[in-house]
Recover the amino acids of this structure.
């Protein structure tokens, strides 16, 4: 147990160093980086992804996966747009869109929790299916012209220089840290992720925990979808397509094991900051989108590979030294 | 029923259930779509499934070892593009050399994945999420926004897709589909009858035990990735032959399609269970739903994906429920009859749970 | 433990150096907006209203025309070369030939005007097009870029970011694909008249199907592609006219600009409608995939393919009769013209109001006009279509 804690400390230390390097590099090289406006932009441009990354952390620590989040984002945004276009007041449209997210979550957790299908299969179908529902609602239209208050929430600062979505992110972050790291429920999430069978025998409600997580995941994805609609001021069927892989990348770089049971919210927070700053810096340095994703891909691999290689090299030398000492003694 | 039980093992039954599902779907669609039960439909679906089927076989090998390969889509795109560019520059390259080149290129990219996963001890999802982006980036940088053009390719390649290998009655088996079939059968034999293949199951279902038993687990995981890359390279060649014009988006999304095919085909994402033939059936099942929905007049363009998602889910659910029932019946039966021990031994690799 | 850290640090440094090597060396701090030049007004002959609708055949040399023609306020604005404007040309996404051609045209104009700042060609990845375009636009404000040229793939979703850029003083011009609501955009440089696209497609259908007409279907890009949707809507309006009465549009399907989907959709159309005679694909990916599908299945004699395509990609299918006729415009010219419009706007020579006339280098004189194909917005119309068939496709494919 202590061993794992040490590893995690090292991991977060590594991330901290990475973040520092990124920030310093950007500050020296990217014009306009060190301004409050840019820092808010940098969050705002990916705010929906990082909100969903918070709940994805829970899911992956629980040794499950939710590939349907991006499609649920699109589905909820299109639900709101569809209802508004058909004369529903925006307040109600938003409320129903959130409920659509809850419904999607209940649907997912029915198949995962009650029928017992693997979450990968269920949410892969969801990835196709909820995107399909988004298109059923808006077809080939682009729905915009939302009321002023709705657009303002997405595009203007709410308190001081901070827009609503950013405030929501930080509030959710605090909740996520408290629940995951300091509550009984959070402990369940880790225990189940470590070993489902052991968890069941020690009286943890495995099924209920999983179902709560999947309903929450879709609900938060729906919220993120609505925030995305407000930020862009219009909805289309393709909204948020492909976000799921970006979100999973953020969580994995944060040191969360894909096999479940380990990782912390702090690590994910650091990884989010690294990715956002790196993208922002590369964007300001006029690197093309492909190079940006390539660099983040390389970073993902190297950040795990480097400690492993270092560990192997060290154990190799230790063995060599031990052998030499043995031969010396003989 | 008893006869059936004696002759088949649970995982074979799963494949029978899938075949049953496929037939049921075809029957259902034939009541909805005019002229559905026509040799033409077979040609359409068989040619369309070839690329994903080949990739899904490689994906299965990787998933059996409790890993995953998300980079295959980028490998397909890269090899299709690079092979196409070389052929456009030199039309006289012999066909065999071209295929080998595509396979070799894919194998090299797969080998890099394999080294990082097996020897670098980086989780497969991290490695292949990374190389998914990196290989695509390489392709875009390498292409300089040019496309491979059909008119620059040699005739033999452009005329490959309609080439008929042989016919069974009015049903044509096209060459590209035959390639996919050969791949499926070859790897099915490999995992069923060869030591190497059977050990894959052992590694996937219990890595610790496999290591204790002295299997070269690292090397096997490496080889699984190498083969997955090589097959993606072969699929890249098929992709090039089929579409001719290749842009940098070629092959995007194949990673998820191949994973979907494998899991629908009964390959357990936690390793150790499943077969290339199952993955092939999974790919076929998804392709039949997809290709039938776009021919179903009653279904609007916009309902297609919603229905596709639902039908995949229902197919897997049916399969799982039926399998669970059968497995329970099995266990009862095995306990009752003394012939049980015999059949377990015959089960071999398929029975690796 | 310490060894690990050292190793990691050195890895990081290598990584950051790589990043540094890839990117341009430290961009200089943004220079202030250049002083507004006062373009020397050069009176010319009054532009006739219809003139810009057709491609200006010859460059009308701005002569010292006497005022006798009573020009209605308009004078031809000319660019003052050599002014520093930081500009970005943004395609829908990278890696597609037509956008690269547009970049060539823009770079040509850039060199011609002697702008000392570099012209950046920046675009998102295909799978991240909408979010990526918004990101590039937002970052451009931070970088102090003075003008951006957008081939918009995000529909109205880019409008808030574009408005923010306008508020920050940036010149925002769209080309190839506009912002539908025109919010945040000063001028749209239209390749062709979007209504005319409908007529061109209907005419090609009539040419191919003959006097007795027949059934045809549309294979589009994705349901979200604003251009394609506008063109298909225009096509449907044209089809209502009596002279097209015997053309029947039976279906509209989407291939998502992916070869696989487009290929399968084309074959599905043939199976769904046994008496289908033509597939009209207003997308370069769709038309090529549909033509390949018809060729592979030996259907070229019964089902023809037409639409908007690249000569190089369509060469083979036009020569063998699978796609006897298709249309496109010059993306190189589009990039060139867009650069001129943007340069003139950014340097203040043009104000971006209706009725302004300007000269765009080798391409001649154009006028900013109301965009009749949208509810709001201004456009500069380039045009015209080139119709390709067996007689001219080989020349164009080179």
């Amino acid at each position: 147990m202590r061993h794992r804690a040490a590893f995690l400390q090292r991991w977060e230390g590594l991330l901290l160093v990475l973040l520092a390097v990124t920030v310093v590099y950007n500050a020296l090289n990217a014009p306009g980086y060190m301004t409050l406006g840019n820092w808010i932009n940098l969050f705002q441009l990916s705010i929906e992804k990082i909100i969903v990354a918070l709940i994805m952390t829970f899911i992956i620590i629980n040794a499950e996966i939710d590939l349907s989040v991006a499609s649920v984002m699109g589905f909820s945004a299109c639900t709101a747009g569809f209802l508004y276009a058909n004369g529903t007041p925006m307040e109600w449209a938003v409320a129903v869109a959130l409920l659509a997210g809850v419904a999607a979550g209940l649907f997912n957790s029915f198949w995962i929790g009650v029928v017992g299908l693997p979450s990968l299969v269920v949410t892969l179908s969801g990835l196709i299916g909820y995107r399909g529902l988004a298109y059923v609602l808006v077809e080939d239209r682009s729905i915009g012209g939302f009321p002023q208050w709705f657009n303002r929430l997405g595009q203007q600062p709410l308190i001081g220089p901070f827009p609503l979505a950013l405030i929501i992110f930080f509030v959710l972050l605090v909740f996520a840290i408290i629940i995951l790291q300091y509550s009984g429920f959070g402990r369940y999430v880790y225990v189940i992720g470590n070993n489902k069978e052991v968890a069941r025998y020690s009286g943890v409600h495995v099924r209920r925990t999983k179902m709560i997580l999947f309903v929450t995941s879709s609900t938060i994805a729906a919220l993120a979808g609505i925030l995305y609609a407000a930020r862009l001021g219009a909805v289309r069927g393709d909204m948020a397509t492909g976000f799921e892989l970006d979100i999973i990348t953020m969580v994995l770089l944060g040191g969360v094991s894909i096999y479940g049971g380990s990782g912390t919210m702090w690590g994910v927070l650091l990884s989010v900051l690294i990715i956002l700053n790196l993208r922002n810096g590369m964007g300001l340095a006029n690197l093309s989108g492909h190079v940006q994703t390539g660099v983040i891909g390389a970073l993902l691999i190297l950040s795990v590979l480097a400690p492993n290689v270092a560990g192997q090299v060290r154990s190799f030398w230790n063995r060599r030294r031990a052998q030499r000492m043995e031969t010396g003694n003989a | 029923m008893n006869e059936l039980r004696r002759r088949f093992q649970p995982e074979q039954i799963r494949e029978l259930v899938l075949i049953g599902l496929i037939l049921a779907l075809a029957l259902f669609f034939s009541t909805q779509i005019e002229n559905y039960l026509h040799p033409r439909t077979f040609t359409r679906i068989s040619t369309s499934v070839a690329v994903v089927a080949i990739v899904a076989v490689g994906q299965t090998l990787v998933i059996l070892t409790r890993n995953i390969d998300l980079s295959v889509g980028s490998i397909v795109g890269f090899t299709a593009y690079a092979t196409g560019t070389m052929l456009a520059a030199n039309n006289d390259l012999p066909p065999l050399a071209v295929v080998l080149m595509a396979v070799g290129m894919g194998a090299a990219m797969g080998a890099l994945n394999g080294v990082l996963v097996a020897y670098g001890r980086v989780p497969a999802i991290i490695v292949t999420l990374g190389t998914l982006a990196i290989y695509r980036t390489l392709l875009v940088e390498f292409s300089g926004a040019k496309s491979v053009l059909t008119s620059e390719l040699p005739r033999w390649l452009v005329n490959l897709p309609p080439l008929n290998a042989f016919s069974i009655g009015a049903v044509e088996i096209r060459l590209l589909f035959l390639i996919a079939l050969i791949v499926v059968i070859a790897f099915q034999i490999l995992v069923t009858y060869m030591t190497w293949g059977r050990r894959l199951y052992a590694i996937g279902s219990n890595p610790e035990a496999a290591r204790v038993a002295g299997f070269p687990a690292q090397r096997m995981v490496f080889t699984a990735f190498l083969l997955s890359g090589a097959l993606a390279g072969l699929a890249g060649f098929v992709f090039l032959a089929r579409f001719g014009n290749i842009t940098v988006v070629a092959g995007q999304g194949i990673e998820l399609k191949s994973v979907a095919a494998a899991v629908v085909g009964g390959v357990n994402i936690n390793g150790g269970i499943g077969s290339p033939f199952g993955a092939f059936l999974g790919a076929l099942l998804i392709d039949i739903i997809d290709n039938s929905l776009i021919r179903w007049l009653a279904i609007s363009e916009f309902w297609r994906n919603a229905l596709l998602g639902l039908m995949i889910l229902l197919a897997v659910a049916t399969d799982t429920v039926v399998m669970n029932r059968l497995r329970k019946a099995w266990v009862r039966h095995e306990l009752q009859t003394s012939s049980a021990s015999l059949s377990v031994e015959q089960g071999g690799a398929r029975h690796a749970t | 433990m310490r060894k690990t850290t050292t190793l990691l640090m050195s890895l990081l440094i290598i990584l950051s150096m790589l990043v540094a090597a890839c990117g341009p060396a430290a961009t200089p701090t943004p220079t202030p907006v250049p002083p507004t030049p006062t373009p020397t007004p050069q009176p010319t002959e009054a532009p006739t209203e219809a003139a810009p609708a057709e491609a200006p055949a010859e460059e009308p040399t701005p002569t010292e025309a006497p005022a006798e023609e009573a020009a209605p306020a308009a004078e031809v604005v000319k660019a003052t070369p050599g002014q520093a404007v930081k500009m970005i040309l943004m395609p829908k996404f990278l890696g597609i030939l037509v956008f690269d051609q547009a970049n060539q045209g823009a770079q040509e104009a850039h060199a011609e005007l002697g702008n000392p700042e570099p012209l950046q060609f920046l675009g998102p990845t295909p799978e991240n097009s909408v979010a990526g375009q918004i990101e590039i636009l937002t970052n451009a404000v931070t970088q102090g870029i003075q003008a951006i040229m957008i081939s918009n793939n995000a529909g109205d979703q880019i409008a808030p970011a574009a408005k923010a850029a306008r508020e920050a003083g940036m010149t925002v011009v769209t080309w190839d694909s506009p912002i539908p609501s025109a919010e945040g955009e000063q001028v749209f440089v239209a390749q062709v008249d979007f209504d005319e696209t409908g007529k061109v497609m209907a005419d090609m259908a009539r040419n191919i199907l003959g006097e007795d007409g027949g059934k045809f279907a549309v294979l589009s890009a994705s349901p979200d592609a604003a251009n394609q949707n506008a063109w298909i809507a225009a096509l449907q309006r044209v089809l209502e006219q009596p002279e097209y009465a015997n053309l029947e549009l039976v279906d509209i399907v989407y291939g998502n600009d992916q070869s696989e989907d487009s290929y399968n959709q084309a074959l599905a159309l043939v199976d769904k409608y046994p008496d289908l005679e033509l597939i009209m694909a207003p997308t370069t990916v769709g038309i090529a995939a549909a033509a390949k599908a018809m060729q592979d299945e030996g259907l070229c004699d019964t089902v023809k393919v037409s639409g908007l395509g690249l000569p190089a990609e369509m060469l083979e299918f036009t020569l063998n009769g699978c796609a006897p006729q298709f249309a496109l415009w010059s993306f190189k010219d589009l990039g060139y013209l867009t650069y001129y419009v943007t340069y003139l706007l950014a340097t203040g020579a043009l104000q971006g109001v209706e009725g302004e006339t300007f000269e765009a280098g080798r391409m001649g004189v154009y006028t900013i006009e109301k965009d009749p194909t949208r509810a709001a917005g201004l456009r500069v119309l380039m045009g015209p279509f080139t119709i390709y068939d067996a007689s001219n496709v080989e020349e164009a494919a080179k």
User: Anything to note?
Assistant: The mean pLDDT of chain A is 92. The first helix of chain A runs from residue 2 to 29.
